[in-house]
Amino acid sequence: MNTVTLDTTGKLCPFPLIEAKKQMAKLACGDLLVIAYDCAQATESLPRWAAEEGHTVTDFQQTGAAQWQISIRKK
Predict the structure, then answer these.
(1) Which part of the chain is the UPF0033 domain (predicted)?
(2) What are the distances in angstroms from CA 75 to CA 31, 55, 66?
(3) CB contact at 8 A, 24 and 55
(4) pLDDT tier at 58 (50, 70, 90 boundaries)?
(5) Closest by alpha carbon to 36, among 20, 50, 52?
(6) Where are the beta strands (DSSP E) in 1-75?
(7) CA of 45: how far to CAs of 1, 4, 26, 28, 57, in Å?
């Protein structure tokens, strides 16, 4: 299993979601995608997208005043 980190800090929505989709398409089943972002809308759109696609959110935390990190395991 691989872990890939995607840093979209400073990029406006929907960029974090678009980049997450592109990166996830390159991963193998079971790989983990860790996304760092500071777009408040992505706190809803990323977990919703993961659930819709059947991926598993393994970690979701606020890392700063307006910064978050989410870990999504590919189904």
Answers:
(1) 6-30
(2) 8, 5, 29
(3) yes
(4) very high
(5) 20
(6) 3-7, 32-37, 56-64, 67-73
(7) 25, 19, 20, 22, 12
* Residue with token string 């992505």: 42
Q: What is the pTM of this model?
A: 0.96
Give the model confidence (pLDDT) of 17-49 as tens digits.
Answer: 999 999 999 999 999 999 999 999 999 999 999
CA distance 24 to 5: 11
> Which tokens belong to 54?
């059947």
CB atoms within 10 A of CB 50: 24
Q: Identify the band that residue 3 occupies on the pLDDT scale cut at 50, 70 and 90.
A: very high
39: annotated active-site residue: no
Q: Among residues 4, 6, 13, 34, which one is catalytic? A: 13
